Amino acid sequence: MLRVALSIALVVGLLVYVVDAREMMRIVRDFDPFYLALALVAVTADRMLMTYKWTVLLKAQGYRLPLFPGVAIYCASMMWGMALPATVGADAIRAAMTAKRGFSGADVVASIVIERMIGFVLALALGLVSLAVLRSLGVLADDYDFALWLGALALVGAVALLIASMNERFVTWVVGRLPRRVRESKPFGYLAKFTAAYHSLGVARGAIVTFGVLTVIEQLIAIAFPWMIALGLGVPAKLSLMLGVMPVAGLISRLPITVDGWGVYESVFVGLMLLAGISAEAALAMAFSGRVLQIVAFVPWWLAHIATSGMLTPRSVTLHRG
User: Fold this and answer.
1) How far apart are CA 141 and CA 134, in angstroms?
2) pLDDT digits (tens, 9 = 90+) for 129-182
3) At 107, which helix (H) or strand (E)?
4) What is the Cα–Cα distance from 66 to 72, expressed in whole angstroms?
5) How many CB atoms lie within 10 A of CB 303?
């Protein structure tokens, strides 16, 4: 409830104290239909590519998840996840729905964990690029150079953690240092299954490299998406500015302090756009339009999943422990 309250407070604060809501609505009403359709195509392509690269990991584990059912599962979990406090909620639902197809729960969870870890490392790297872009555009002063150094240290740490987690000998050494009663406990047995699945996927180098390349492409589409929205709304925001703003706003919005990043993402996005000379009304119109277009793109896939599975709520899904 605290996260919901904070989301509402941040959004209301933006609408009441930062922008002229009537001017923002005027900007939204003038959305060019061509760019509206183009943005919908972009966000749909983004979700399809995100699903496909996940199926690459599943294929490396010996599973075949067709693209369209996979997109339906991905979008349905995102829709349900919007009502949950953090992105892990949507991931748990996605794992459960995939396990219902007969996949091993441990294998599915391992694929999602690796998906998130690699995605985070690459997003962090892109975040460093975006900070450099914002510095070169004059949006951020040299006072913010410390953020580049902190980001670089965080990236090194994240890469080291990812490599260590995929090193079976290192993990075995760590586990061997745990008390015997912990290693023989039932919860640790489930963890051992997950660890085995995780390492079996970690050694699939070809799949990991393919996934990484596709993740970079997917993140570039995610940057082009708000630029298309800007073109449709008549906002003078260049693609280079979106390259600087989006990765930073996306990274900060991942902090699990609001529901699906609501309020946090919009606040950071509006703040950075203001520094770039874009009005708060235009920036918030872009942020809200992006949110709405994502939901519009997800709904057909969500309905398709309901129609084919008969599962209206995530409560009807149980996670297999295979």
Assistant:
1) 9
2) 898 888 888 887 777 778 778 888 988 998 898 888 888 788 778 777 778 787
3) helix 105-136
4) 10
5) 14
